[in-house]
């Protein structure tokens, strides 16, 4: 297993955000985490990324226990989070955003990898010297993914990447996630767009109020009547 | 001709303010922290420089040192003092109270450091101004009836060169990008693998370097240092930073020069005691029409340099 999370528990003050969640992602797999707003999905990803410290539980990446390691060490190991709301740096240029994605690297191939991202996203290439604030929502999401790619991740975690995108852009985005996966990148995807997520993922987990309430293959979850009632109906409208 | 001379003097004086104004703008822009110890770092470099050139190393370890090594050590001491401030104001309170940048605690504790350092120097050396002598203290360039002091023009050049170098650092290096990214969005910066706890001391080292250098240049230019030398320069540099626009390096440069110019012209036309009224009056009037300052951005702490 590339990523193994065991009994992860996280509190913010009085809020018990994540309650003893265990999940895993195999090399080359796309795994999705589903759940309503406030189910603890983002907190879970932030804890895996090392941005917040869990109260209990262990996180193993590539067989090594990284629970006590900082975010930087996790990025270096190949674990990268594309945060909710993109969080690109609007006071930096498009190109600088990509360069900062490669912050933990010291090899000479960063420039080449920046060009590779620009080849992948010609829209970004056309605005490489412009401040990232001028990009549209879809372009910002591409930049956020491109920035994450610059760290040479082995596992990319995406937090609600489709949020605020038009249906066409959502299709493009999921196409991109599929492409990246076929090129060898493992994906942990948090989505409210349950349909799309289950279409692309091999397996999924369902969180409710911080606790794991269901897990299984995408087909099993898609057929689960409880899930259909709780989430699929709601996201049909949204999508 | 006299007025041209005054304009020249004003720009030279502004050159001293530039380094301190940029130090203020850097800590405000990146850390959202008004660091009150900045004037005292300026003073420490000048006073320690003077002490070494007058007494030599402490405990009789050496004869009086030459002016250059004295000021060099003075600058290093300013950098070290700045790191002490980082450790015990910014980092300590951030670790203890979470995001203390949102609170007045670092600001007040930096004010505490200002007074502690100032009174330590007062206890050691008393409050009298001390003469600081360099071999070229009186070298002047005379041109078309104008007098340009060579140390002044050199210090203006050094000051601008350091700030230009700083601007390059911020724009062209990965460290600079990391500083700007941290300034804009520390949470996202952490996700990029930027270790904010290692980045923050860099800001304080740069602060100490800029202030220490400005203090050394002041000592060379005016041939005199005192434990109070930071106070006047500190308030003028804050005015310069605000006039230029908070968080903008080039704004701080322009603001520093404008304040220097306003000060000498004010003294020329209205007498020696008018400078503070003119400088702060200009600032208040400017803020009425341009609340962001000349080169400022909309939101403080978001997107600059």
Question: Could you characterize the architecture of this molecule?
Answer:
The complex is a heterodimer of chains A (239) and B (305). By secondary structure, chain A is an alpha/beta fold. Chain A has a single domain, classed as P-loop containing nucleotide triphosphate hydrolases (Rossmann fold). Helix content of chain A is 40%, strand content 26%. Chain A has ten helices and ten strands. In chain A, the strands form two sheets. A six-stranded mixed beta sheet of chain A has the order 6-7-8-3-9-10, sandwiched between helices. In chain A, a hairpin with a 2-residue loop joins β1 and β2. The longest helix of chain A has 16 residues. Chain A is globular. The C terminus of chain A is likely disordered. Chain B has 305 residues and is mainly alpha-helical. Chain B has a single domain, classed as ABC transporter involved in vitamin B12 uptake, BtuC, CATH 1.10.3470. Chain B has a two-stranded antiparallel sheet with strand order 1-4. In chain B, β2 and β3 form a beta hairpin. In chain B, α5 runs antiparallel to α8. The longest helix of chain B has 31 residues. At the A-B interface, α2 and α3 of A face α6 and α7 of B.
Give a brief rundown of this model.
Chain A has 239 residues and is an alpha/beta fold. Chain A is built from 10 helices and 10 strands.
